[in-house]
Amino acid sequence: MTLAEALVEVLAARGARRLFGIPGGGSSLDLMEAARRQGLDVVLARGETSAAIMAAVTGELTGTPGIAFTGIGPGAASAVNGVAYAALERAPMVLFTDGRASGPGISTHQVFDQGALFAPVTKDHARLRPEDGAARLASLLDTALAWPRGPVQVDLTSADSAAPAGNSANGLRPPLAKALAGNLDAARALLATARRPVILAGLEARDGEAPAALGRLADALACPVLCTYKAKGVFAETDPRAVGLFTGAEAERETLAQADLILFYGFDQIEMIPGRWDYAAPVLSLRRHAGRDGPIEPAVTLTGELPALVESITDAVKHGSWSTDEITALRDGMRRRLVLSGSGATSAAVTAAAQATAPAGCRLTVDAGAHMFSVLADWTAEAPHGVLKSNGLSTMGYALPAAIASALAEPDRPVLAVTGDGGQMMCLGELSTAARLGCRIVIAVINDAALSLIDIKQQRPQLPQLAVRTPAVDFAAIAEAQGVPGWRVENEGDLEAAFAKAWAADGPVLLDISCDASGYGAQLEPLRG
To answer: Which segments of the chain belong to CATH 3.40.50.970?
Structure first.
């Protein structure tokens, strides 16, 4: 067995089903062939950034590390943004990069220290060698899966990948659950005296039994629940206690200001934008790991598996004093803050039409930009991972690669990818990837010919308009040229019919929607101040 074959065997044993990337001329060729023989899919992307995002999203959805591969030098460098996504979104993945051969007289062409490049955005990195490479990879996968989850990177030369492997990897096992840690008595005392608690659920709450445990905790506390963007759907938004989204800014202030205890449930502070946190209520944090990752210092932190943590504290809970009418008023107030004005088609109108026509179980992926505030506020999510968004990194060019990863991981689940014209321009080539793979995706491009969020920020200090607006692009024509049916939608009244027709298609469809951006500034003011 060659080292490449041994590595793929380790990946398959951990549940990997496909690799994403663009091959170079080195070890990636051996990895791809070994994957083919092992029955793993090899997905050719159009860009390394997109491939890394696809791998990271696969890791988030499946709970097993996503796999990406690149060539040496420029291929590796192009994957950095996708790996940064995995780091700041806590997504388990491994990136294989072609490595430089060692020895005298070896060319330095395309060579730089790839481990040093990825060190700031990975949990670990290594050069894999024949004698122990499989065992080392198994250890790296453990690292990727340990909370906080994240990416690892390995260099692999063509000579090493083709060489006979040494001892096989032993002890392939999932990470062990950690025992409960923290001051349980202090946590129970906080809960015993709280009468107006508020739960804030974050990205760690998405997996396994954690969402169900959140429901039990909310039942016991009978209190308002806020979810971060990554946790949207962890607590069903049709539940009367669901107030809305935690934006890290002004939208949730009315709710949190009334709390006498703020309970972080799987909340990772990496999801917070810079801003004020001046709430008087103490914070009780239930986490999967003990690392502090932001400016807020909880009064008490308990760590361990979230369902076990809930079980350990529920009997200390005293029924709160929140009334149904109070929670309803908070939810209505937040919705009023997020209303988007404008004439004709707006991102809010697009969201309403899409959800009114979407098949049951549709997943939403959303790109960064001004459109995302109303899209995320108006789309109703009922289940974990029902919405995918880059929040820790907030990268553009995300929605389409994430949608492709979703369609491959769950082929029977339809996906709506909502992106702005700026984000779509960053990953145009992946339209052909979606077409080639037959992914069931409806891509809605909010086309206002501007980087609208940056445009607003430029306008506030009354700076001259510069580098934020562009000539309009015909995305429908570009989609058609890459094998994706594309339709222009100019009028709000045509939206529902266009979406209904798009959902009836067997493969990807792109809707190029001319949208009104005039309301974004007024919407942003009450959100961000």
So the answer is: 3-162, 347-528
Output the CA torsion 154→176→61→203 (10° steps).
-100
Distance CA(46)–CA(23), nearest Å, equals 11
Q: What is the DSSP string of 266-318?
A: S--GGGPPS------S-EEEEESS----SS---SEEEES-HHHHHHHHGGG--
* 137-162 mean pLDDT: 95
In terms of Cβ atoms closer than 10 Å to its own Cβ (0-12, 13-18, 19+), residue 367 is buried
Give CA–CA dist 489/491, Å, rounded: 6
Residues of the chain with CATH 3.40.50.1220: 184-337
Tokens for 132?
């122990």
pLDDT surpasses 80 at 462: no
Residues 295-332 as b/e (b if ≥16 CB within 10 A, e otherwise) read eeebebbbbbbbbbbbebbbebbeebebeeeebeebbe
| pLDDT number for residue 60 | 97
Q: How far apart are CA 522 and CA 442, in angstroms?
A: 29
CATH of domain 347-528: 3.40.50.970
With beta carbons less than 8 A apart as the criterion, state whether 140 and 134 touch: no
Tokens of 159: 């000579």
Superfamily of domain 184-337: TPP-binding domain (3.40.50.1220)
Give the separation between CA 359 and CA 354, rounded to whole angstroms. Answer: 10
274-308 pLDDT, tens digit per residue, is 777 889 999 999 999 887 678 899 999 999 999 99
Q: Give the Cα separation of 256 and 246 in Å (integer).
A: 10
Architecture of domain 3-162: 3-Layer(aba) Sandwich (3.40)
Name the amino acid, one letter, at 273: I
Region 206-223: what's the mean pLDDT?
95
Other CB atoms within a 10 A radius of the CB of residue 389 amount to 23
Check: CB of residue 175 under 8 Å from CB of residue 138: no
SS3 72: coil
